Amino acid sequence: MRKSSLAVLSLAAAGALAAGVCAVPAQAQTPPPVVSVQSPGTSPSVNAALALKAVQRLFPEVTRVVSIGPDSTAVGRPTATIAVVLADPTGTKKVTLSVDVYDSSSAAAAAFRQAARASRAVPGFTPLITPRLGTATTGGTVTMGGETHIGIGVLDGNHLVGATIAGFDATPANTARLVALVRVQLAAVDAALGAATPAAR
Question: Helices 105-120 and 3-10 sit at what angle, rounded to 10 degrees?
Fold first, then answer.
């Protein structure tokens, strides 16, 4: 999965959809299906088994966690970021989830706008019509080297959430599965950060 196309479609990063570093509020008590929060001064952590289980409900093709780490493509100055990459047994189909947390909603909004502009500038980028999933939502598809990436990025208060699938056809059914996954991810992140933003879900 090419980092450049992920960055573009992932919106959680400056070319953006995969996650980078620092303090997350420690208010969360219940571990969500994707993200769990540690003490202040640390990055969010991910329970790999729970992340895989959550993704498999919608993408049963995915059977393993490939990597968990910071979002090296995050836009602006996030205070905490993380990315999880999951794949099928052959590595030809991948799902990437990311979260970037900022110290204010205005900083998150600026990063979202920057990532959206970068996405639209990519050759072959096709905008994706998606429901409004947070404060603002963007998405698109791009095919590079014969591999199609479908990505959705969401601004939700002071954080950005991204999800990208690669190696899947850009069909309405796969797009609907991705939208459903983003809804699950948003609920998990809101619960973990203790800062749910009123949004059409």
Answer: 130
pTM: 0.76
| CB contact at 8 A, 14 and 114 | yes
Give buried/exposed letters for 22-47 (b at 16+ CB in 10 A, else e).
bbbbeebeeebbbbbbeeeeebbebb
pLDDT in tens, 43-98: 445 566 667 888 999 999 999 999 888 887 788 999 988 889 999 999 999 999 99
Q: What is the pLDDT of residue 24?
A: 30
- Contact yes or no for 87/109 (Cβ under 8 A): no
CB 186 within 8 A of CB 154: yes
Token code pair at residue 161: 């959430």
pLDDT of residue 50: 65
Give pLDDT, residue 59: 96
35-36 and 80-87 strand pairing: unpaired
Q: State how far the alpha carbon of 66 is from the alpha carbons of 69, 121, 154, in Å.
A: 10, 29, 23
Pairing of strands 147-156, 136-144: antiparallel
85: left (phi over 0), alpha (psi -120 to 50) or beta: beta
Residue 199 identity (one-letter amino acid): A
Please give the Cα distance from 26 to 48 (Å, whole number): 20
